[in-house]
Amino acid sequence: MYVAVKGGERAIDNAHAWLAEERRGDPGVAELSVAQIREQLSLAVNRVMAEGSLYDPDLAALAIKQARGDLIEAVFLIRAYRTTLPRFGASRPVDTGAMSCDRRISATFKDLPGGQVLGPTFDYTHRLLDFALAAEGLAVPEAERGAPAEGPMPHVTGFLAREDLIQPEPEGAETPRDLTREPLDFPADRPLRLQALTRGDEGFVLSMAYSTQRGYGRNHPFVGELRIGTVTVEMDIPELGFSMDVGEVVLTECETVNQFKGSKTEPPQFTRGYGLVFGQTERKAISMALVDRALRWEELGEDDVGAPAQDAEFVLYHSDNVQATGFLEHIKLPHYVDFQSELELIRRLRREAMAATRREAAE
Q1: How would you class 196 by CB atoms within 10 Å of its CB: exposed for 0-12, middle for 13-18, buried for 19 or more?
Q2: 273-300 CB burial, b ≥16 within 10 A, e <16
Q3: Taking 90 as the threshold, does the pLDDT of residue 284 lie above it?
Q4: Do residues 185 and 285 share a domain?
Q5: CA atoms within 13 Å, Cβ hemisphere of 124
């Protein structure tokens, strides 16, 4: 550590106290509560839950407050806390087809069973600063919203599957490896890749997805369906001999439909990209679906064009913001011995180079 810093451990303790003071800000301004963060900064809370791999809005809001709004630091806090929690078992796969949807849109089919539901979205806002929000106590107009869409809402890709126009998904697959309990290794199958993308940094995954749209990969996507809503989580209880509901989670799911001209092993058809993320996190879900499709080039028999988004090792190793932060920020810690050895090496090389120059000049 910084043992040479004036004050030693006392200086470090003071740094922690100063951090707490900065976190609180001006005492004359009302303190931000965890409930306020949870309710009014819900998209930030959703991101922390997704990248932290822990669905708990209260804990995510607390982490955001502790991290002073630094979402990567908040994700780090959530992941660290997650490692202390006991594991009681595994839930059944959730049925997103039975989702109670707040938002459900398709860019491929206009008329859908269950209809298209715009829901709460920035899509049609003008991106102008609303200074009325700065007026404290101003009444917020209530939206005329009905109950979440209920009833059958089959996935759009099911319509294509009935005509055998889209690649079928394998059924009866083995239980996937758990990335939160096992280290990432390669080759990584699709379930493991999807886990990594779900936990991946939203900005990085977005950049990779954007690169595929600009020609660095084989992506000509349509959003087959984007849905946001609540699903029930069920868990088998061995002592009871049956499953029961243990709670509900809000999810964002995206399926893209991608053009595919066929290969040596697959006929011409549409293929899928898939994204599933905690909370209302549609930018991340769409990005995840595009990158998922780009990473499937090998299993679809496509020729590798060498795009970054098609390199599983590059994408998955560099998408984890907690791991990246740790490796990046460790360079600000003391490296006195390493630097001194580098310094002595450079001095020796310079002396040798200067001596060689003088010999050449003398000759």
Answers
A1: buried
A2: bbbbbbbbbbbbbbbbbbbbbbbbbeeb
A3: yes
A4: yes
A5: 4
| Domain housing 68 | 9-82
* Nearest partner of 41 among 90, 81, 74, judged by Cα: 74
Pairing of strands 271-278, 221-237: unpaired
CB neighbour list of residue 230: distance below 8 Å, 6 or more residues apart: 99, 100, 102, 148, 248, 249, 250, 251
Task: Kindly state the helix (H) or strand (E) to which residue 232 belongs, with its residue range.
Answer: strand 221-237
Structural domains counted in the chain:
2
Collapsing DSSP states into helix, strand and coil, what is residue 276? strand
3 state SS of 159 = helix
At 273 the three-state DSSP class reads: strand
Neighbours of 96 (CB within 10 A): 18
Question: 25 exposed, middle or buried (CB, 10 Å; 0-12, 13-18, 19+)?
Answer: exposed
Same-domain pairing of 320 and 210: yes
- What was the pLDDT predicted at 72? 92
Are 105 and 18 contained in the same domain? no
The structure tokens listed for 70 are 């630094």
Relative to beta strand 242-258, strand 221-237 is antiparallel
Same domain, 64 and 194: no
Catalogue the long-range contacts made by 78-86 (C-beta closer than 8 Å, 24 or more residues apart).
78/48, 78/49, 78/52, 78/53, 78/54, 79/52, 79/53, 79/54, 79/322, 81/54, 82/52, 82/53, 82/54, 82/180, 85/54
pTM equals 0.84
Whether 135 is covered by a domain: the verdict is no
Per-residue pLDDT tens over the stretch 306-338: 888 888 889 999 998 888 888 888 888 888 888
Q: For the residues of 277-320, what is the DSSP string, one character each?
A: EESS-HHHHHHHHHHHHHTTTTTTTPPP---GGG-HHHHHHHH-
> Using the 8-state DSSP alphabet, how is residue 117 labeled?
B
Question: Which pLDDT value is given to residue 144?
Answer: 62
